[in-house]
Amino acid sequence: MKKQFLNIAAGILSATIVLTSCLDDDGGSATTSHLIVGIEAESGTDILVGADDLMSGTISPVGRGVEQPAWMSFYQVGNTLLASGYTSDNMTTGYRMIDSVLTDVGSFITELGVYGIAEIDENTALVAGVTRAGFEDRVFYTIDLNTMSIISRFNTKIDERQEEGLVAWPTGMIRQKNKLYISYYLMGAGELEEAPAFSTPNSNQARVAIYSYPEMELLNIATDDRTSDIGLYSGENAIMETENGDIYSFSTSGSASYFKPVPSNPSGFLRIQNGETAFDDSYFFNFEEASGGFKINQAFYAGNGKMIVKMIKEDSTNPIYYGASFGVYPETPICYLAVADLENQTVTPIDDIPANGGGWGVAHMVHDGRVYINVCNYKTETSTEAYIYEIDPETATAVKGAEIDGNYAKSINLLY
């Protein structure tokens, strides 16, 4: 496969990037931009594409962009964009802007599949390596992003329960000074008949493992019985840090979010105060109650105490809802967008965005007080659509932006 590049232009006007064009070695056109959008093309191939504007026109990978080797997950750490294979090998490739060119800066290979990457600092990442069945260790790799090399490995079970047939699946990581917080949920390892792979028979509790960092000694497993396991499969930012250093988690309690059996505790947010190693007993945001029966599917922090929430209203007794949030283009969409105010514990629907499809995570970018997010919709049996929407978290309003020429956007990133 030929190597293609995306070049950046010199100027940024507000959130819109002014572009120029150049030629690659084979004479094809290469788009230039600070804005990089990961798109699953209609062929199923993932491509990193430059975008001149997120709010108008069409963002297309046709005949341009950096083609990826397989179905990928994308993570940004500082100014490095990491592309990690999901359906192929365990190779992760880094991209950075060097001399105004989006450049492949190298790759590293992990023994286990990558299911989460956290920023230690702008030059260092922590990568979670996990198997999807069995009782193997979870391996946390420290990566030097300057050399794209593994500089240390740490093996841990986190919270293995072989007698129950359960293992810990990481759903989020935050390094805060000399502590590392890892949220997880307990899922069946597929080794016992009563705990099939991916089942969730013991999920009526929220759990966060807290390690010293960089020593990686387990300090505590914080638990809370007011809600359920934190995060979901493929949801890798289930704990988030706010401006004052407090850490918030979300729990789905949802069949549509791949929990079976479904936890009986409500969907909601918990808090660990800055520097603490236990949940705050005085804080529980019962999202399910505040929203009138919706459950959190995915959430991410938009700043100023606001969460953008992809929420679902489901009938947990109806098997058709099981795993339904992973359907990108369902004929009957069940996902809605809302703003959750963490301080006032209110939920405001974003009525400007229609009911929409789900997916494996939510492609989004927070920039200058606005949120840019991918939204997918079913049109007909042979026609689908995906757009970028701009959300104002303070007013819970949104504006439809650029159309995605392809299946959907998998990542939206701004690199310098």
Characteristic terms for this protein:
single chain; 416 residues; mainly beta; 5-stranded antiparallel beta sheet; 5-stranded mixed beta sheet; disordered N terminus; DUF4374 domain-containing protein; DUF4374
Structure description:
The protein is built from one helix and 34 strands. With 416 residues, the chain is mainly β. It is globular and about 55 Å long. Mean pLDDT is 90; it is low at 1-31. It comes from Reichenbachiella agariperforans.
Strand order of the largest sheet: 1-13-12-11-10
**Uncertain spans:** 1-31
Largest sheet: 5 strands, antiparallel
Mean pLDDT: 90
Radius of gyration: 21 Å
Quick overview of this protein structure:
Helices cover 1% and strands 49% of the residues. The protein has 416 residues and is mostly beta strands. A 5-stranded antiparallel β-sheet has the order 1-13-12-11-10, with no helix packed on it.
